[in-house]
Amino acid sequence: AASDVYKRQYQHSYYGFCKMIQRLQSKELLNSFIDPFTRKKYLFLSKLGNEYLGGKENSEKIERTSLLHTAKVPELTRHFLTLEMFNSVKLKHELKTNPSPDAILIGKTKKSSIKIAFELHLGQWARKEIFLNSVLQYITRDHYDLIILYFQNTGVLEAFKEWIEERFGIEAHHKIIYALNDKFISRDFNFDETVVTYNGRTENIYKLF
Predict the structure, then answer these.
(1) How far apart are CA 91 and CA 105, in angstroms?
(2) DSSP 8-state class, residue 200
């Protein structure tokens, strides 16, 4: 297998890296968790590790109740960087806006630069008023050109869309892109299969961007 060839070729660095990770975890500088759907292992700084590296006391903490969401946002936004329009991403902990989206996608169109707020919804039923208040900030501020709401559950997408229409009218859809991939949290996830809806038109994500 290719992974076995890699391990033999880079045996010293590979096992050295593994031992280093184990040592950092034993010293409680790193924490980890296993994605229950894909079995991938994710590493993140513990509170002690953050302090050791000079992190600020008020820096954003990674809550165990939202570990999967926190891990999936950077993983997903890296896929967006494969699209021609985008050239950089800023994650939530880098932002100073209020409310802060999960990330900001930055890029260029033929005419100007563009900044898009990004929110990931992993099937969670967010509190309606909190969700609508955050959407209000995104669609009324000039700080963002658009917002992408990314879902892995059709039912949740349609419910959230209905909330937005009831509160803000269909005009709000001029500033919102709804993205859907029902395999997002599975091992069969393929970003290329993401479908987006914008201004009443539904198509593959590569056709929109």
Answers:
(1) 9
(2) T
